[in-house]
Amino acid sequence: MSPLPLPTNPDRWRFRGQIAGVGSTSGVRVVVGWWRQSPFGEFADAMIERPDGWRVLLAPSEQVRDLVATTYTFDETRIEEFAAATDDAGRWVVTSPSLRLTLTPGPRMPVGWLLRAVPRRLATSPAWCAVVDPIARVVMSGVRTRGIAQAGRRESYGATDSHAVVALEGSFDGRDLGALALVDPPCRFGFSSTPKRPSITDVTTTIDFLR
Questions:
Q1: pTM attached to this predicted model
Q2: Nearest 5°: CA angle at 128, between 126 and 131?
Q3: In this predicted structure, what is the pLDDT of residue 104?
Q4: DSSP 60-127
């Protein structure tokens, strides 16, 4: 896909892609964003929370690092070569010097069927995200679809589909992650976590730079 053009309205940026949120029996929780369309072109990055609560951002460039690190909260940021792809079996394969991760997608989740019933243009609009935010808070503990991030930025997460993740293998900083586990406790990068059940969600993220 070609990148989105830099916005004519500098106060609003949109990122279209998928977010994978998984836990592991090692206690490490990982959130991978794979953005097919964005003001930076296609890229992937990862937010990692260790069992001791230390939060690490893995970013592929200074541009991405600067945006993400000033929107979310981290104890450490790293700029390193970062790649995401799918193999012949449809698995996510994520590689960087720090992270090796293979995720096996499973069936569409019940919430995925509900999300697909909403027209995409409506589902990805910030106004709709504001309407469904109170519902998301109740149905999926820790999940928000709209809120205020750092630096006076308002974020809206417009989800359009969701599939379960059924298997995980990999390592972080050379240590084996173990097997797949729930995202529990919730990640603490921003005002929202990923769902507790490991999943891959199709999403359009809108960032409004409030003045």
A1: 0.92
A2: 115
A3: 98
A4: SSHHHHHHHHTTS--SEEEE---EEEE-TTS-EEEE-SSEEEEEEEEEEPHHHHHHHTS-HHHHTSHH
